[in-house]
Specification:
338 residues, FAD/NAD(P)-binding domain, D-Amino Acid Oxidase, Chain A, domain 2, binds flavin-adenine dinucleotide, FAD-binding oxidoreductase
């Protein structure tokens, strides 16, 4: 039995959750990231935890488990806040079952034009993805985890034939009992260094942030025109499709358009100002499904999933158990690499 630590590569929401769950189970674990925690896709995320009602597919079930595990984490991780605000949705893309109960104007009183038909999803919620990532890492450290930030992993190391048993950090090598690749869009390149293929697609999206007075948006609002939610400090988040924008000027234009739409849609929003408009690249396997579990290369565990905020809680719990006990968790069974 190896006495080396488990090394988790990637301090986004996924790696942070896996590290926390490993440390909470008493494992010796080291978290390594090229930058600061949450500086990948996690930084640009809307942070919506939810699923389509009535979706009883395996993917829907996994999302429901994600919600359940976020409830648990909010109880056990100091300072971790999950806001179970619910989501008000309408329009073709988000809802086919809207009712005309007039509740939209009550739930979101600042909407300038509340929809006649809408649907409220009381089970949905949101979190601030970077803050949640930081809280998970702090709790992991409280449980003995080590961290190395600003440290890119240059290669997975296989000193004994086909088994991954360490990572190379430039001129330094760290030995590991298991290496977890939770490196977002960097995962393909890392797996390739161990001869393992992890096909992923490029999936960019834009996140616009507006500074606005707190309390304008009560929960999550989503329809065919826009999605929006507001953080406790007043920051409004509006995620948008990416349409080949390729310069800061293009992005600022997207930000200004989003602001205009927000001002038109919410009373009292005239003061809203664009804080940023940035592209986030969502880590997504080529078939769109999560890829979680030991690969065919011994010692190499992979954790890449979309939607990663919703799923990080359950995947963190399941991955930690699989790594430490060699058990296989049923909810991950159809999401293996092969
Ligand atoms: C605009 C937008 C909106 C979204 N909205 C939602 C939503 O509402 N709900 C939801 O569930 N999901 C949402 N997502 C998706 C979600 O944000 C991602 O699935 C999730 O953040 C992925 O987390 P991760 O930890 O896997 O990857 P990342 O956050 O990308 O973290 C990977 C980390 O690995 C590090 N890394 C990479 N290569 C190396 C290396 N060689 N050495 C060391 N470190 C390395 C990076 O620095 C990075 O910190 C959204 C995404 C975007 C872009």
């Amino acid at each position: 039995m190896s006495t080396h630590p488990v090394i988790v590569i990637g301090a986004g929401i996924m790696g942070a959750s896996i590290t926390y769950h490993l440390a909470a189970r008493g494992a010796d674990v080291t978290l390594v990231d090229a930058g600061l925690p949450g500086s990948g896709a996690t930084r640009h995320s809307f942070g919506w935890i939810g699923r389509m009602p009535g979706d009883f597919s395996p993917a829907g079930d996994l999302r429901a488990l994600g919600r359940h595990h976020w409830e648990r984490l909010a109880r056990e991780v100091p300072g971790l806040e999950v806001h179970w605000s619910g989501a008000l949705v309408w329009g073709e893309h988000f809802s086919s079952v809207g009712t005309g109960d007039g509740q939209a104007a009550v739930r979101e009183p600042n909407l300038t034009s509340a929809p006649a038909r809408s649907e409220f999803r009381p089970d949905d919620g949101w979190l601030n993805p970077v803050r949640a990532t930081e809280k998970l890492i702090s709790a992991a450290q409280e449980n003995g985890a080590s961290v190395r930030f600003g440290t890119p992993v240059t290669r997975l190391v296989s000193s004994r034939g086909d088994t991954v048993d360490g990572v190379e950090l430039g001129s330094e090598t760290l030995d590991a009992s298991t290496v977890v690749v939770a490196a977002g869009i960097g995962s393909t390149a890392l797996c390739a260094t161990a001869g393992r293929s992890l096909p992923m697609i490029s999936s960019p999206a834009i996140m616009v942030r507006l500074g606005a007075s707190p309390g304008l948006v009560r929960g999550i609002v989503a329809n065919d025109m826009f999605e929006a939610r507001q953080d406790v400090d007043g920051t409004v988040l509006i995620p948008l499709d990416y349409n080949t924008e390729s310069s800061m000027e293009d992005l600022m234009q997207v930000g200004m358009d989003a602001r205009r739409l927000f001002v038109k849609s919410f009373k009292g929003a005239q003061e809203a100002a664009v804080l940023s408009a940035e592209i986030g690249w969502r880590p997504m396997a080529a078939d769109g499904e999560p890829k979680v579990g030991y690969s065919e290369t011994p010692g190499l565990y992979i954790a890449v999933a979309h939607p990663g905020i919703t799923l990080a809680s359950v995947i963190g719990d399941a991955a930690a158990e699989e790594i430490l006990t060699q058990a296989t968790r049923d909810e991950l069974a159809i999401y293996r690499l092969n």
